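Appendix B. One record, verbatim.
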Amino acid sequence: MCLLLETIRVENEKPMHLEWHQKRMDESYFKCFGMQNPFDLQQILKMRHPNYKETLKCRVVYDQNRFQVECTPYQERIIKSFYLVEAPHLDYALKYADRSHLNIIKKNLPPGAEVIILQNGHVTDTTFSNLAFFDGHQWITPETFLLNGTARQRLISESKIISAPLHRNDLQNFVSFKLINAMLPWETSKIYPVSLIHGI
């Protein structure tokens, strides 16, 4: 059975980039259940999220017939280092609510560390975000993603990043990188130096 997830940033009571989440939800629902999605995220969030002025992280967990919404104040993760980890058989093509297979690959890391997942040497994602690397001229996101995130798709459509092949051996050619997900606004998200990546 499919149990799926959408994570949506709500800012000043407004859900951000909701059309991209609705599009993915519609596509994921059809892939899992073979029928048209009956859920409307705009109506779901209008009913469910509190009227807070602060930034909220709203999780919509759903299956074929039901949905559940949880909105909490958003706190950005503090990451101090990144480790390259090979996981060639990891599959996360849809945004499943069960993340145990992702979390297990980072269980032995030191506090404040995150993984950059490799598949046969090709750069994919972290356990919770897509990636974009800066070479001094442009931002490049790996074409070998695990999950084609809504923020990744939007930034490509806006020509802020480009998709290209990216191997672990290419990482030394970059200056810095960003994490991409729906909770991290591109313009203000943290820029990490490539030197924080262990194993290059």
